[in-house]
Amino acid sequence: MVERTPEEIELRRARRAERRQKQRDANVIRAAKMHLARLSSAPAPPAPDDATGKVHIGCSGWYYWHWKGKFYPTGTPSNQLFSIYQDNFATVELNAPFYSWPTIAAVKIWIRQTVPSFVYTIKVCELITHIKRFEDTQELVEDFGYIADLLGPQMGCFLFQLPPSVRYSPDMLHLILSQLDPRHRNAVEFRHKSWWNEDVYSAFRAAGAIFCSCSGPRLPGELVRTSDDIYLRFHGTQQWYRHDYSDAELTVWAERIRGSGAKTVWIYFNNDRDGNSIKNAKRLSEMLAARS
After folding, report:
1. Is residue 46 part of a domain?
2. How many domains does the chain have?
3. For residue 52, what are the CA distances in angstroms to 84, 185, 190, 228?
4. Of 190, 195, 192, 185, which Cα lies nearest the Cα of 162?
5. Has residue 3 been placed in a domain?
6. Which end of the chain is less enclosed by CB atoms within 10 A, N or C?
């Protein structure tokens, strides 16, 4: 391993921070453009809902170079990676929009590169959840929701992930739920354990929102259902993104899912290290199919 001097480390941090700030500035511009596009377009008719009543299992992202040689054959061109992913899964949770607000052109590419039955779940841009933290974001939420109008029946859920520094309070709970668009499937993921309480669950049920259940370090490993849909993310147990779930662990979750009474199930594996998410997603899918 190459050892870097403190000056080199600080320079790398500064450059990284500069890149992140440029991206955040670009997100504001992209959001403004999508706002104008939304206002100038006719309201989209309700899209056929082909997702209800199904179990949707996939990975959190698909563009990982470290999957080459494990999932993607070595030497696979980058423009063929998603085609291979589609051969194995019928849904994906897109994390890239969290960092980079998608353009309309990008969304149209998503549509062109998939079969009509493929379903996208979209992680909402950090501009809403991490930068503004839902402060005066009603219009931004509606603008981001324009993605659903573009995707039509290929739209799954919007995932709003809050940072661990956001702790439960009645005011924060109201601030979040009051800005969600009930026309869409909205899943909210918290990273602080204070949100796992009955007051939150009751408010989510009243709002028709999906409380995102998590398998993650220092988070309650509970399956919570607040609507006809359940949403579950697997991050790892002791370390983020690294855990390889055993059959015994997945069996416990499979039993919880079967016993939840949910009509529609959304499951995404975010433990991408060493390609574990692919293997674990396929295995849980097999378990659920065996008893369906």
Report:
1. no
2. 1
3. 25, 11, 24, 9
4. 190
5. no
6. N
The answer to whether 189 and 214 are in contact (CB under 8 A) is yes
pTM of the model: 0.93
User: Looking at the domain assignment, is residue 48 inside a domain?
Assistant: no
Q: What does the block give as tokens for 113?
A: 């590169």
Exposed/middle/buried for residue 12 (C-beta within 10 Å: 0-12, 13-18, 19+) = exposed
Is the Cβ–Cβ distance between 244 and 276 less than 8 Å? yes
The amino acid that residue 50 corresponds to is D
**CATH code, 103:** 3.20.20.410
Per-residue pLDDT of the chain (292 residues; tens, 9 = 90+): 567 887 878 888 889 889 989 999 999 999 999 999 999 988 777 776 778 889 999 999 999 988 998 899 999 999 999 999 999 999 999 999 999 999 999 999 999 999 999 999 999 999 999 999 999 999 999 999 999 999 999 999 999 999 999 999 999 999 999 999 999 999 999 999 999 999 999 999 999 999 999 999 999 999 999 999 999 999 998 889 889 999 999 999 999 999 999 999 999 999 998 889 999 999 999 999 986 5
Is the Cα torsion angle 35, 142, 211, 54 positive or negative in sign? negative
What is the DSSP pairing of strand 264-269 with strand 55-60? Answer: parallel
With CA atoms as reference, report the closest residue to 177 among 149, 206, 142.
206
- Kindly tell me the burial class for residue 220, based on how many C-beta atoms sit within 10 Å of its own C-beta (0-12, 13-18, 19 or more): middle
Greatest Cα pair distance in the chain: 58
Q: Residue 215's closest CA among 243, 257, 184?
A: 243
Listed in sequence order, the DSSP H helices in the chain are: 6-40, 81-88, 96-99, 104-112, 126, 138-144, 146-151, 170-177, 198-207, 247-258, 276-290
Reference 283, options 236, 243, 246; nearest CA is: 246
Domain boundaries, position 114 = 10-40+53-290
87 within a domain of the structure (yes/no): yes
